[in-house]
Amino acid sequence: MQQKAEDFANKLGHEDNFKGSNGWLESFKNRHGIIFRKLCGESASVPESVCEDWIKNIPDLVKGYEPKNIFNADETGLFYQCLPDKTAMFKDEACRGGKQSKARLTLLLAANEAGTEKLPPLMIGRSEKPRCFSKVKSFPFPYKANKKSWMTSEIFGNWLKSLDKSMRLKKRKIILFIDNCSAHNNLPELKNVCVKYFPANTTSKLQPMDQGVIRSFKVNYRKQLIRKLVDAIDEGSTLPKINVLDSIRMTDHAWRNVTQKTIQNGFKKAGFKNECEEEMGIIEEETEISEKEAEETYITDEEMIEINSQDWNAIKSGLKVNISFEEFLQVDDALATCGTLTDSEIVDNVRCISEDENEVDEEHIEAPKVTVKEAEKAVVRLTNFLECQENVGHDGFAALSNIRKIIESKKNRRQKSLKDYL
Questions:
Q1: Torsion of CA 87, 92, 95, 99, to 10 degrees
Q2: Beta-bridge mates of residue 78
Q3: Scanning 82, 218, 321, 381, which has the fewest C-beta atoms within 10 Å of its C-beta?
Q4: From CA 177, how far away is CA 202, in angstroms rounded?
Q5: What is the pLDDT of residues 227-270, one digit of tens each?
């Protein structure tokens, strides 16, 4: 570590005023909480006895926490541009820095056991400011960047500190379950978030997000891709090009549409039991039902995606491919979400050097500028549309009302003078 620190100092131009002494090493380790720990690997065999012991100990681990305050967070890789005709090519690429790295993102998804609170996703891409972000000033969730689109200990630590601050403001204390991958091994000091690690090599069985929740998100995401393809085929237009901004919009919509029941089933399948149900003496009956319901996240393509066979057949014939939706859905299941950066990548990250995330052949498309008047007219049209639909309910109109308030707040307001009335 001392030698490597001196190497970095030389590359960053600090060779004259830095010395990696023993004292520096001890201070560095204490400052960052560095200890020796065996890291996990999700692909290793899952020890059943360890899983059983862990599930038995869950009530003790979450004692004092209500289901609404029990959270799980997990990363997943996403080939955000992947269309059905490119599935085979993407599936063959492990993408640990390979040729498909420009077309990938990493997402951190987190939710509570009650299924009532889905934290905003965290997206990690390759470029800090892709060209498609031009003129865009507000995003539905945080976006970070590094050369590999990987989760790092710094990004994860900052996310944890932000979550901790949010819970302090709400005067809540929560417990967060995560795997002990390399990006999670340098935790900051937290006051309102208690972090617990799953046992090594067990996350495929014990991590609630892996029990159908992430799958449901990807179904919702790729459902939007399919809709774009169907529209393009029907209109006889070119296939859609997806950039990072498009992916942010689709990710936000897909995550919001993961149901509360899906999240609850994910936690139950992972061994988490609702204390309220135990007190009522119905946990055994409910467990059998919930396990059956949890398996329903693996139902057929047509039921899951709500796209009829004609749509999927049109896509397959239009793109001249012969794959199932299941193959299309699972294309990035094994995508690496963290790893070891090279020395040059670390130095570039410190210097805030990043490559343009967009592919060379991507068109320079900026988000269109929409005026306040145009936005007001759009809200009126949406209101008219909802009024002509059945069973919209109060919530639908309330959402439009909130949008109208935001638009009103953006109007240019200036102090009127006497001349304005003459």
A1: -80
A2: 105
A3: 381
A4: 13
A5: 888 788 778 777 778 899 999 999 999 999 999 999 999 999 99
Cα 256 from chain centroid (whole Å): 11
SS3 420: helix
Q: Is 175 helix (H, G, I), strand (E, B) or coil?
A: strand
Which H/E stretch holds residue 398? helix 393-409
- According to DSSP, the residues that pair with 144 across neighbouring strands are 124
For the chain, 422 residues long, the average pLDDT of each consecutive 10-residue run is: 79 79 79 54 64 92 95 94 72 58 89 96 91 88 91 94 96 95 89 94 90 93 85 78 92 94 95 61 40 41 50 70 76 78 70 50 59 87 88 84 86 60 58
CA–CA distance, 234 with 228 (Å, rounded to integer): 10
Name the token pair of 294. 């949890």
Q: Which helix (H) or strand (E) holds 2?
A: helix 2-11
Q: Which amino acid is at 313?
A: N
Q: Yes or no: say if 142 and 333 are a contact pair by the CB < 8 Å rule.
A: no
Distance between CA atoms of residues 215 and 262, nearest Å: 10
